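Hi V.,

Quick status before I head out on leave. The structure for the redesign project is tokenized and pasted below; the design run finished overnight.
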């Protein structure tokens, strides 16, 4: 299983520190932001100890394709009402693509955007225009459009919307998809019957485009369209369904990333990774996760 979690990338070790954190969770994958996800402040990649990080990854069997980069939340390519917001999104996405290249990563996960009351069709077409502007020099980078929950005016909450974007952008070959379990559950997909959902994904988008899976439980009932992550086994999706997903034979080579909440300021990722590997969800392990105890 290729599995890891979101990890921090902060001074002084930056990417090297992020890899060290992933290793401490017994992970063989990781996801990072190249800077704060809520703003545009960025340190030069040259300061981020990339070479040392790659060497540590190699020693621990973490390949570069298993290092996922997530674009900042402030990028909203679907904004039809504020030209300055759209222009910032295009400019910053273009810069993020270059930063992913410098990190020698492959996948940049992107929230498609919110149409802000302009309507879904207008929002989708705006996303396509923005991607066409930003994706002129992709190199080996693929933008992984994330499946969303549909809260507010979010787009990308149906597989058909992502297919529409893929079919209409100039460089569709450089687009992939990140499947978020919490988001598709909240969007209304019945992932308790995950094989059916996966067949639908394959029919509409194609499994060959599935770059990674965000493995999260949900605090909400199916179809709530709220997007509130829960810890593995403590939400409405449940442990058995998530265990089935991460061990699915058709997803063996897909990177799985946990984005579950901290528990009393402690990251639960070592425990949750161990739980998903072991197939065991017992009371003792539940209590350890609640207490943030390292296994």
């Amino acid at each position: 299983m290729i599995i890891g979690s979101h990890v921090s990338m902060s001074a002084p070790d930056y990417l090297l520190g992020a890899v060290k954190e992933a290793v401490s969770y017994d992970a063989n994958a990781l996801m990072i932001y190249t800077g704060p996800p809520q703003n545009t402040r960025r340190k030069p990649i040259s300061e981020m100890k990339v070479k040392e990080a790659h060497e540590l990854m190699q020693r621990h069997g973490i390949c570069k394709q298993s290092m996922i980069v997530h674009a900042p939340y402030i990028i909203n390519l679907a904004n039809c009402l504020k030209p300055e917001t759209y222009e910032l999104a295009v400019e910053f996405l273009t810069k993020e693509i270059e930063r992913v290249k410098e990190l020698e990563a492959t996948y940049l996960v992107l929230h498609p955007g919110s149409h802000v009351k302009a309507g879904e069709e207008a929002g989708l077409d705006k996303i396509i225009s923005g991607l066409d502007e930003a994706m002129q020099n992709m190199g080996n980078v693929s933008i992984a459009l994330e499946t969303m929950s549909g809260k507010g005016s979010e787009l990308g909450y149906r597989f058909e919307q992502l297919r529409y974007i893929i079919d209409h952008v100039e460089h569709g070959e450089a687009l992939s998809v990140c499947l978020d379990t919490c988001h598709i559950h909240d969007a209304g997909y019945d992932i308790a019957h995950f094989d059916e959902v996966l067949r639908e994904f394959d029919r509409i988008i194609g499994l060959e485009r599935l770059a990674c899976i965000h493995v999260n439980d949900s605090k909400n009932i199916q179809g709530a369209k709220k997007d509130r992550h829960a810890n593995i086994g403590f939400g409405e999706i449940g442990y058995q369904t998530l265990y089935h997903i991460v061990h699915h034979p058709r997803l063996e080579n897909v990177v799985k990333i946990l984005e579950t909440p901290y528990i009393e300021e402690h990251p639960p990722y070592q425990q949750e990774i161990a739980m998903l590997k072991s197939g065991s969800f017992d009371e003792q392990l539940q209590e350890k996760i609640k207490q943030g105890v390292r296994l």
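Above is the designed sequence. The chain has a mean pLDDT of 94.

G. will cover questions while I'm gone.

Best,
W.
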